[in-house]
């Protein structure tokens, strides 16, 4: 590779290659891990806001416990 290259283009092409090489089980696990990691970085309030927007019934279930 030459010293000058299109960084964004090579990132996109590499990403496509990695994704194309994954089977559905691997891709699902990867997505799951990324979501968990992202959610673990949120404060309790941010997490509640996220849940309210995507799956408010989960908070209702927690209140029943």
Q: Total strand count, please? A: 0
Main sheet characteristics:
none
Strand content of the residues, in percent? under 5%
Mean pLDDT: 91
Helices and strands in order, then pairings?
Elements: H1 7-21, H2 24-40, H3 44-54, H4 56-64
Essential attributes:
65 residues; mainly alpha
Describe this structure in words.
This protein is mainly alpha-helical. It contains 4 helices and no strands. The protein has helices spanning 7-21, 24-40, 44-54, 56-64. The longest helix has 17 residues, at 24-40. The chain is elongated and about 60 Å long. The mean pLDDT is 91.
Can I get a quick summary?
With 65 residues, the protein is an all-alpha fold.
